[in-house]
Design brief:
alpha+beta; seven-stranded mixed beta sheet; five-stranded mixed beta sheet; 16 strands; 24% strand
Length: 440
């Protein structure tokens, strides 16, 4: 959220002082009847400000890569695959590279058979050194990763795998039936942490160089503290955005909170064409999301929200449309609609008004019908469409590891995550709030 600091033009300060004096002289007159989360003076409460979403860099990231027979078509010697391209794009990302402690290679029985720098891993990967006959034992591999997280070996763990779990043997069918429960129990011990699952597709190459599939699915499973998982996930999605192959993403346990934002007037002195934006220069941490003397008869009555959606990737931000937002009002009488501004939009206000927010999205609110009590609170909430499992359901239904276009047991893995995080899958960010009143 936007916090207005002390740096402000003299004219802004004079306007703010005038408004503050007016506010104190008619104390309680703006937000009556009281509408949460604003106080009686029309200022958003600190408890709401403190619910801001945060995305923070991890201390370190460790990659855990499966090498098994089912992954061989991704690792073929001197063969270009989408998998190699994607993994290289991520490991070469400057921000990710600076946080990567090492890349670990899993062998049979979830043993670590190699530890590499990102450069050494890429060199060996491109040379086909990781072609293997090991088995994909996802539960055991996850247990090793979970133990490392619990023992503070890593801050954030990234598991790269095709996730084709096939236990084999006489107990195969029983193990497959209980797979979701096994995954649920694994992650139940990490209920205070978060998981982000990214799906990608790659060409899959045979030993003689022929392409057996162009849509072979594989996955990045990111595990760690919520805000740090979000940072890693965003870096990955941005690194992968340059290719045209499908990418899916679903989060579990990520607390999206409320994005940082501020409501902007159409001029640097705090006055829009419809009314004054209320800021109090005597209080440094005043959140600017309130307008007084708002005259919605002057059409169009508009307010611009400068938003920093740090919990989604820039690629997804660039594709946002107006229908991706839900707009509601407290009284239900005021009409409000949202328009996503073009990517090259620049507000005509003092840059200091948006510096603390560092916005990556601008939304224009058009308001009318502000008649009920001459006041209202408008809520704007993005629908987190990226966080639906539907994007991965096309990989469900494989009957054997040899089904190269789908993933054996991925449905059990995702269902286990949904059970482990029953209240957080498909979470949405908290709404941005704007207080408007005709009162002066």
């Amino acid at each position: 959220m936007k916090f207005l600091g002390a740096s402000r033009t003299i004219l802004q300060v004079l306007v703010g002082v005038t408004l503050a004096a007016s506010l104190s002289s008619c104390k309680g007159s703006y937000n009556e009847p009281l509408i949460e989360p604003f106080d009686k003076d029309g200022v958003v409460k600190s408890s709401y400000v403190e619910s801001m979403y945060s995305s923070t860099q991890p201390d370190n990231v460790i990659f855990y890569v499966e090498s098994s027979g089912s992954m061989n078509g991704l690792f073929r010697r001197n063969q270009s695959t989408g998998f190699k391209y994607d993994v290289s794009a991520i490991l070469l990302d400057p921000e990710v590279k600076s946080k990567t402690a090492k890349v670990c290679l899993f062998g049979n029985s979830a043993n670590i058979i190699g530890e590499y720098t990102p450069e050494d891993f890429r060199r060996k990967m491109n040379a086909g050194d990781f072609v293997s006959q090991a088995s994909t034992v996802v539960p055991e591999m996850l247990q090793r990763i979970i133990d490392d997280i619990k023992n503070s070996v890593c801050d954030v763990a990234v598991f790269i795998s095709d996730m084709k779990y096939s236990p084999g043997g006489a107990t195969h069918s029983v193990a497959m039936d209980q797979y979701a429960i096994v995954i649920q129990n694994k992650f139940a011990s990490l209920s205070d942490l978060a998981v982000s699952l990214i799906s990608c597709e790659s060409n899959y190459v045979s030993a003689n160089g022929s392409v057996l599939s162009n849509v072979f699915p594989y996955y990045f499973t990111i595990i760690g503290e919520s805000s740090k998982v979000a940072w890693v996930r965003n870096q990955f999605l941005d690194a992968l955005s340059g290719q045209s192959r499908p990418i899916g993403c679903v989060d579990f346990g990520v607390d999206y909170g409320c994005p940082e934002y501020t409501a902007l007037p159409s001029s640097a002195i705090g006055m829009s064409r419809n009314g004054f934006e209320y800021v109090n220069p005597e209080v440094v941490n005043t959140h600017s999301s309130s307008f007084i003397s708002f005259d919605d008869s002057i059409q169009p009555a508009e307010v611009v929200l400068a938003v920093n959606y740090r919990h989604i990737s820039q690629d997804l931000i660039n594709s946002l449309e107006s229908q991706d937002f839900k707009v509601s009002t407290h009284w239900g009488q005021t009409k409000a609609s949202v328009t996503v501004m073009p990517g090259d939009y620049k507000p005509t206000v003092d840059a200091s008004l948006v510096r603390n927010v560092n916005p990556n999205t601008y939304l224009k609110l058009t308001i009318s019908g502000l008649d009920y009590y001459d006041q209202d609170v408008i809520k704007v909430q993005m629908q987190t469409r990226q966080n639906t499992v539907n994007c991965m359901e096309k990989y469900y239904g494989a009957m054997a590891e040899g089904d190269l276009d789908r993933t054996l047991s991925i449905d059990g893995f995702i269902n286990g995550l949904k059970r482990a995080y029953p209240n957080s899958a498909n979470m949405q960010n908290a709404p941005m709030v704007l207080f408007v009143t005709k009162k002066n």
